[in-house]
Amino acid sequence: MAMKNTAHDEVQAWFAGRLPDQWFTGPAEVSVDREEILVVGPLAEPDVAPDAEHDARASAAAGRISRWREETREERIGIAQSAEYRFGRKVAWGATCGSTSTLFTHLAIPVMTRLRQPERQVLDTLVESGVARSRSEALAWSVRLVGQHTEDWLVELRTAMESVDEVRARGPQTG
Question: At what angle do helices 135-149 and 151-170 cross, to 10 degrees?
Fold first, then answer.
């Protein structure tokens, strides 16, 4: 389960106060789970001719992200170390520039799962068809696909879980 909303709000507020104002053109998006804090901020788009092809705009955006990553490396490391000490989670970074988004130094956590033969056959089909290189990659691809197509339902479910946490917190305390 994700962190309770109040803890997420504390992490978000800490980063809002800690990140240099000149780094991003708007507020950074901070997401939190049990293992990791992911900080992704919007960068100013480079000046590219309005009639430039999509590939040229994407290359310019990728270059802007790469430059930002290199120029901020030392300071990001210091911020990450402070946050890791304070919140007990690894910190990962990313940036967006126009429609280009890049994540770096983020974790890939192994997750144990038990699948019956029909589910394994789905994964094997994805591997055999070349959609994925391994069962692990096929499972990650499937989870991303489900997430894309059920975002509204997942948001509703997370909100309901927060309500349950609030009711539990108001309930009797065990000694």
Answer: 80
Taking the C-alpha atoms of residue 90 and residue 156, their distance in angstroms, rounded to an integer, is: 27
Range of the domain at 104: 5-108
Residue-wise pLDDT tens digits, 41-97: 999 988 877 777 878 888 999 999 999 999 999 999 999 999 999 999 999 999 999
Same domain, residue pair 30 and 89 = yes
Spatial contact of 68 and 43, defined as CB atoms under 8 Å apart: yes
Report the alpha-carbon distance of residue 155 to residue 175 in Å, rounded.
34
Residue 116 has pLDDT above 80, yes or no: yes
> What was the pLDDT predicted at 6?
53
- Looking up tokens 């009639």, which residue turns up? 51
Which amino acid is present at 108? A
Are 96 and 11 part of one and the same domain? yes
* Calpha distance 47→60 (Å, rounded): 8
Q: Are 89 and 38 in contact (CB under 8 A)?
A: no
Q: Which residue shows structure tokens 């130094």?
A: 105
- The residue among 91 and 166 whose pLDDT is bigger is 91
